[in-house]
Design brief:
Elements: H1 6-16, H2 19-22, E1 27-33, E2 50-51, E3 54-61, E4 68-74, E5 82-90, E6 96-98, E7 107-109, E8 114-116, E9 129-136, E10 140-141, E11 146-153, E12 165-168, E13 171-178, E14 183-189, H3 191-194, H4 206-217, E15 222-228, H5 243-252, E16 257-263, H6 266-269, H7 282-298, E17 302-306, H8 319-334, E18 340-342, H9 344-348, E19 349-350, E20 353-357, H10 371-379
Parallel strand pairs: 14-15, 14-16, 16-17, 17-18
Antiparallel strand pairs: 1-13, 2-10, 3-9, 3-11, 4-8, 4-13, 5-6, 5-7, 5-9, 11-12, 19-20
Helix pairs in contact: 4-10, 5-7, 7-8
Length: 398
């Protein structure tokens, strides 16, 4: 069933069709992203964790001040048509607006498709929370990377007191209409970039911390968006398409991208759980890096290489993977093919055991950082990689 909202159509006309806006300098920029990802089969092999007649609420912290927003909903890597209903959005004032797509309040998104909503007249300051709720009649699988959500039964409002869960959901981007467009920095990686082991709902992942550092140094000049996916790989597909396969969708499709900070390859070089099935070689990962750099450079995007963090003592660590990690890190540091280097390895490794994370920076699995480790990673990024005078920069323009 398609329900058409006259108010939504009038708003879209006012925001997009007026002569005044045509003469305005306002542009759209991503204020938050979540990369498309196939449903994770975290329960049984037959039944991924999903939703059944539930309302999903997301409180999304935006990285761009806005006078209007649009939401992007993805089914690009779904396995079946996606039905969603009664989506709403509200800013800090609590005024709830219906979200429509070409005037429709109920949408059925075919496999392989993403939809962008009609504009919503919501004023937001940078770092405000945008509260988005939607009803998934289900059974429905989440089709973007894991984020913090709150759940309610049936088609009802979800309280801010409902517990947070780390779940895949459906919103892949929030776009902000702004008069002062920032340069867009994309953090591209795996679970370490996704922030899979950071404190839920605390914005403690390293891209969020880096975003706050850049804002403190250069107010309004940059936004850092997160394109990490747990389990992602550079060379081969795993739980999700490899970096080369998703580069257009998760990076190049975003307006205003000036920099990519890439840290990925650990999932490639480790064995698959069976030591007799070794991971990819350092040479294969480096060859893929070169392709990523070349494609981004063709679009004028600078690429910063993040060294691979240590994972000694973790479940799939072995001498071969450590040798590959050292070779890859030497390439990142010394080849000159990246436009800059963020030495995450140096910032987080144990000085007494360089093949392992510092004990106070890692989770029990000895692979993933904790909040302190993510903080150290973000602090390791030299802000002059983005602006020559990070302490006194003017507004950076894409």
């Amino acid at each position: 069933m398609i329900r058409v909202g006259c108010a939504a159509i009038a708003l879209a006309s006012a925001l997009l069709g007026s002569t005044a806006l045509a003469q305005d300098a306002s542009v759209w920029r991503p204020a938050w992203t979540a990369a498309a990802a196939p449903a994770r089969f975290d329960g049984t092999p037959e039944a991924p964790l999903g939703y059944l007649d539930q309302t999903i609420r997301q409180d999304i912290r935006v990285g761009v001040a806005a006078k209007a927003v649009r939401l992007r909903v993805s089914n690009e890597l779904g396995q079946e048509p996606l039905t969603l209903r009664d989506m709403t959005a509200a800013g800090p004032d609590g005024r709830m607006l219906p979200v429509a797509f070409g005037g429709a309040r109920e949408i059925i998104i075919p496999v392989g498709v993403a939809l962008v909503s009609d504009p919503l007249a919501i004023d937001l300051k940078r770092s405000d929370l945008l509260t988005v709720s939607l009803h998934a009649p289900g059974p429905t699988r989440g089709v973007v990377r894991r984020t913090a959500v709150r759940l309610g039964q049936s088609d009802t409002a979800v309280s801010s007191d409902a517990p947070l869960e780390r779940r895949q959901s459906f919103i892949s981007a929030v776009y902000a209409l702004t008069n002062a467009p920032p340069a867009v920095v994309v953090a591209l990686g795996d679970s370490i970039t996704e922030g899979a082991t950071s404190t839920l709902g605390a914005d403690a992942d390293w891209p969020s911390v880096l975003d706050r550092r850049l804002e403190a140094a250069c107010p309004g000049a940059f936004v850092v968006v997160n394109a990490g996916i747990s389990g992602n790989q550079v060379v081969r597909d795993g739980r999700s398409p490899n970096v080369r396969a998703r580069l257009d969708r998760d990076v190049l499709s975003l307006p205003g991208v000036t920099h990519v900070l890439l840290i990925e390859g650990i999932n490639d070089i480790r064995h698959d759980g069976n030591p007799n099935n070794p991971g990819r070689s350092a040479d294969e990962v480096i060859a893929s890096y070169r392709q990523i750099i070349s494609r981004l450079h063709l679009r004028g995007v600078k690429v910063i290489g993040g060294t691979l963090t240590a994972f000694g003592g973790s479940e799939r660590f072995d001498e071969r993977s450590e040798t590959a990690r050292q070779t890859i890190n030497a390439f990142i540091r010394d080849s000159g093919e990246f436009d800059g280097v963020a030495d995450f390895d140096l910032a987080t490794r144990n000085p007494d055991q360089p093949d392992a994370l510092r004990l106070d920076f890692g989770r029990e699995d000895r692979l993933h950082p904790n909040d302190s480790g993510y903080e150290a990673m973000a602090q390791a990024v030299d802000l002059s990689l983005f602006t020559a005078e990070a302490s006194a920069c003017g507004r950076a323009r894409p």
